[in-house]
Amino acid sequence: MMNTTDTKSRDIVVAVDAMLLTLSLLEEINGLKSEIRAKSIQLQRELNDSYLKYAANTAPKGCVPANTKKVETLRNDIEKNKQLIDSAEKAILSVEDSQMRAILTLRYIEGLGWSDVAKAIYKRASADSVRKRVARYFGKK
Asked: Are 4 and 42 spatial neighbours (Cβ–Cβ below 8 Å)?
């Protein structure tokens, strides 16, 4: 674990397994999860199409379904996104402030809204105060 402060942007950057934890990465996690779901559905369709075409052993011996490259690309994309999410989760675990770890996990990994995070962590805090705390942590105003 290595904490560094970049003097230009004042972002706090946490490096874990070559993963830099930044606010923009955290904000991207929900998009990565949505992309995984969409590509998983697409992968299942591609696999079903292959299965239907060749289930009856009608394909010539040694014949490979035409969508093999597409299936492999989808699998690689899904795995790459999962690795990014796993790395971000590890980086969050390396944050020293336990409340900030909890906030980051609830908001970006669990996908809770700011008001739900505020209720879970502080009981009476507003969504805006929790959002601002995260922004301050990452040096944004």
From this structure: no
